[in-house]
Specification:
single chain; 11 strands; three-stranded mixed beta sheet; alpha+beta; Rossmann fold; binds zinc ion; 341 residues; 3 domains; four-stranded antiparallel beta sheet
Length: 341
């Protein structure tokens, strides 16, 4: 790729014999008319806001490294410009070309990578491919704030998904993340997790009350929720539509319920939500001091035995004991169901 960029007049190598300079190949940003189009800023503005290495051998301060020499103790490969290694922007362009092709559908990344990294990827790939588009869509995500503070290594306020999953169902994490648009800053913290859990309880509550309704296969392409997702992945809008669909299911005539349930589940499925059995959802543990599901089942068995023995006072005592532990029992034809409050 470096050789092609040199041949097409978009890059130059430093061949001045000066140690530390010799063996560099630089991209000539002034050779590309629309360099900087992604961030929509002029070259001068971009350079003012970024740490740009000023070096006398550069034709222009914004020129960036495609290939750099490696010292003997550094990783390196032989090349027409001496032993060296690729610059970090070039690695992405080369890997994308090799594995995905000249034009890709979607390129993602954090907002902090727009400049210089993604501008430079575009420059390398477009110029190496005679102006062919590099990515049809760019999706840049905002940062996550923890309890109002930026998540950072130095603050030590990292939250790892695996740790959170010990306290929260995955759908709760998903719900919090999807509640903000991916391009905007995201807040993350206990209050948001707890309120996401309550919102999911509301949705699962509707499903639970409609357990007897068979969901129909429906076309969702005309729903507002689906259109919201097609509009730059507007998940906050889609989630509010999800609640609307749940209320519609609740209020629908018997004949319309299967389609209403089908729409709700299909839209939720696109976001990885409402994937669990509604009955099961309400048995998930809510905290460290919760009684375990096995203990609940054991007490229900004890209560059933008491009922079989016509010891109704004993059966009621078990129900009260569970209630004091935040577990509600509901007797039905299929047996005793339970949920946490
Ligand atoms: Zn990259």
């Amino acid at each position: 790729m470096v050789s092609r960029l040199i041949a097409k007049g978009h890059a130059y190598n430093i061949d001045n014999g000066v140690e530390g300079e010799q063996g560099h190949v630089l991209f000539d940003v002034q050779s590309m008319a629309d360099y900087g189009a992604l961030s929509g800023r002029s070259l001068d503005d971009m350079l003012a806001g970024a740490r740009v290495e000023v070096a006398s051998y550069k034709k222009y301060a914004g020129d960036f490294v495609l290939w750099k020499p490696s010292a003997d103790n550094e990783p390196g490969w032989d090349s027409p410009w001496g032993r060296g290694r690729p610059g970090w922007h070039l690695e992405c362009s080369a890997m994308i070309e090799k594995h995905l092709g000249e034009t890709i559908d979607i390129h993602g990344g954090g907002q902090d990578l727009i400049f210089p990294h993604h501008e430079n990827e575009i420059a390398q790939s477009c110029c190496a491919h005679d102006g062919k588009p590099f990515a049809n869509v760019w999706m840049h995500n905002g940062f996550i704030n923890i309890e109002g503070e930026k998540m950072s290594k130095s603050l030590g306020n990292f939250r790892m998904v695996n740790d959170l999953l010990e306290q929260y169902p995955g759908e709760v994490l998903r719900y919090v993340i999807l509640s903000a648009h991916y391009r905007s800053e995201q807040n993350f913290g206990k209050d948001l997790l707890d309120s996401a859990w309550r919102s999911l309880d509301t949705l699962y509550g509707f499903l639970r009350s409609q357990a007897d309704t068979e969901a129909a296969d429906v076309d969702i392409s005309e729903t507002d929720a689906y259109k919201a997702l097609l509009d730059d992945l507007n998940t906050p809008m889609a989630i509010s539509e999800l609640h609307k669909l749940a209320r519609e299911l609740n209020g629908a005539d018997a004949a319309d319920k299967p389609a209403a349930k089908g729409r709700l589940l299909a839209i939720a499925g696109l976001m990885g939500l409402l994937q669990q059995d509604a009955e099961q959802w309400f048995t998930l543990s809510r905290g460290d001091d919760d009684i375990s599901a096995e203990q609940v089942e054991a007490l229900i068995a004890k209560r059933n035995q008491a009922k079989a023995d016509k010891d109704y006072a004993g059966a009621d005592a078990v129900r009260e004991e569970l209630k004091s532990l935040g577990v509600v029992l509901e007797d039905s034809r299929e047996g005793t169901k339970w949920r946490r409050e």
